[in-house]
Each structure stands twice: as C-alpha cells, then as structure tokens.
Specification:
The chain has 1 helix and 12 strands, in the order αββββββββββββ. By secondary structure, the chain is of the alpha+beta class. It is elongated, with a radius of gyration of 29 Å. Bound molecules: FE2/S2 (inorganic) cluster. The site of FE2/S2 (inorganic) cluster has 12 residues, from loops.
C-alpha cells in the first residue's frame, strides 16, 4: 500500500468517526426532544377499588394484600384499616392475641384483641390503628367502605379517610 493510499484510508476512517459522533449527538438531541413531548406522570394504583362480596367476608380480619388493606367484620359491621406503616411504608403485621387483653397504652388502660406491628423499625399500632410506639408519626388510616349497588360488592375509597369508629352495616 502506498503512502497516499494509507493517508486516504486514515482520512476516510476519521471521517467515519466524525459522522458517528455527529449522528450520535443528533440522536441524543432528538431523543431528548421526543421525551419532552411526554408528560411526567406517576401512574398510581386506583384509590377506589372493588374488594369482595360482603357475604364472603370472614368474621374478624380479612386481608387484601394487593391493596395492603385490612377489612374487619364483626357481626353486621365492617370497617377498613390501611396496612401501610406511616413511617416509611412497610406493610404492618396483624398480631392477634386470641382473646381480649387489657393493656396500658399511653397512660390509658385499653382492651384489645389484636394490634399491628411494623417489622421494619418497630412501630406499634393499637387495634384501632393508633400509634403508640416506634417512629411512625401518625396512626393507620381508616377508609370508608360502601356497597356497589350494581354488583353488591364491597368497595373501598382510599382517597379519603374516616374516623376510627366509622362502620358500615352490611
Ligand atoms: S416503616 Fe414501619 S416503622 Fe419504619
């Protein structure tokens, strides 16, 4: 190969590199522009969800892992408590006592059949979801339930909270 041919090949090689860099830069600019056309939306799970035919609820605790939600049934009353720890969002454990137990919590004697304990950093919630130990800044939210008139199924609305003594009669 002559010197002239070697120089020509080198020139061609450098041109190709230049083209590659140019196309890469253009591609990056175009990709950035295309991405800017899509809004930054966080797709959250729906807040209002259908749960179950209330006839199929067990007496006591019913857990819906896909919604991280406890639904309790006592006689003809039902209510819903979130299973999401209010510290950093771990799922709390349901801790049943098997009987009514009197406990002194925050200076008051209360009777409980269960509690909620967070396995992550030790927050503890009473049977009603009130926080009494650990780093969680607030209690577990209670959500309203209703019966969907079209299907007869229980529906929970997790977009709003209700007081802890709120009950739905079924
Ligand atoms: S996430 Fe429950 S105590 Fe930290």
């Amino acid at each position: 190969m002559t010197d002239k041919e070697i120089k020509s090949k080198r020139r061609e090689f450098l041109k190709n590199i230049g083209r590659l860099v140019g196309y890469g830069t253009l591609g990056g600019v175009f990709a950035g522009f295309a991405r800017s056309l899509w809004p930054n939306i966080l797709y959250e799970p729906p807040k209002r969800v259908r749960l179950i035919d209330p006839k199929n609820l067990a007496e006591g605790m019913n857990y819906f892992p896909e919604h991280r939600l406890f639904v309790f049934k006592k006689g003809n009353e039902v209510w819903a408590i979130s299973a999401i720890c209010q510290h950093l969002g771990c799922t709390v454990n349901f801790v049943p006592f098997g009987q009514k137990v009197k406990k002194k919590i925050l200076g008051k004697i209360i009777e409980e059949e269960w509690e909620f304990h967070c396995p992550c950093h030790g927050s503890k919630y009473t049977q009603d979801g009130d926080i009494y130990a650990g780093p969680a800044p607030r209690g577990l939210p209670h959500y309203p339930l209703e019966i969907d008139p079209a299907t007869g199924f229980l529906v929970v609305d997790m977009s709003r909270e209700v007081k802890k003594d709120w009950r739905l009669k079924v």
